[in-house]
Amino acid sequence: MLKLNNKPLSYDRAFTHADIQYPANWLRLSSLEERNALGITEVADAPSYDQRFYWGVDNPKDHTQLVEQWVSQVKQTAGSLLAQTDWYVIRMSDSAKPVPTSVQLERSEIRRFSDEKEAAIEATTTTEELAAYVTSAAFTLWEEVEEEEAEVAVEEPVTLFEEPDDTLIFSGNASGAQILTDTSIKDTISL
């Protein structure tokens, strides 16, 4: 952090010193010698910490509560990923139309990744270990489902009713109607 007369300076912000207005880009464009000539000093930034895991520097949050929170987060993420294909499962229970193999594989992989992540979270013994795992690539990436070359069964279309041999089309209103058949014979029915 840069300071001038014990006041912090921010990059890309104009500042005034000795009745001179310096433009917003001056700190970026100036050399170290130019900054030192004005009395600008560089001070080490205050130590930082991840607020998801620590109350302050070297002040970790309760590990047990964090484990519960992160396991819950993993379950929620898995649930939202599974929700995208839940309609296949509902359709299967309603109409006995099978869930495609690729969807079944994807759902299995989501559950497997979720189980692995939950187990890894629960295996941590300190907040520091938990923070290291949760911020790692192993946790942050929900791997793509590797589609195995499986033969997907061709699904036969489901018909809810048999179509009649002759098609009848009704048109008209309450006082009269016409019947059109596939032979284009028009009959009028009076109601």
What key phrases describe this protein's structure?
191 residues; alpha+beta; 3 domains; three-stranded antiparallel β-sheet; 40% helix; 18% strand; disordered C terminus
Stretches where pLDDT falls below 50 for ≥5 residues?
A: 145-164, 179-191
Strand-residue fraction?
Answer: 15-25%
How far do the termini sit from each other? 90 Å
Q: What would you call the structural class? A: alpha+beta
Total domain units = 3
Total E-strand runs: 10
Q: What's the overall geometry?
A: elongated
Order of helices and strands: EEEEHHEEEHHHHHEEE
Please tell me the overall pLDDT.
Answer: 81
| Quaternary structure state of the chains depicted | single chain
User: What's the arrangement of strands in the largest beta sheet?
Assistant: 2-1-5
Radius of gyration: 34 Å
Helix content: 40-55%
Report on the architecture of this protein.
With 191 residues, this protein is an alpha+beta fold. It folds into three domains: 2-42, no CATH class; 54-140, no CATH class; 163-191. Helices cover 40% and strands 18% of the residues. The chain has seven helices and ten strands. The protein has helices at 26-29, 32-38, 63-83, 86-95, 101-123, 127-134, 137-140, and strands at 2-4, 7-9, 15-17, 20-22, 41-42, 54-56, 59-60, 169-173, 176-180, 186-190. A hairpin with a 2-residue loop joins strand 1 and strand 2 (7-9). It is elongated, with a radius of gyration of 34 Å.
Short structural summary:
The protein is built from 7 helices and 10 strands.
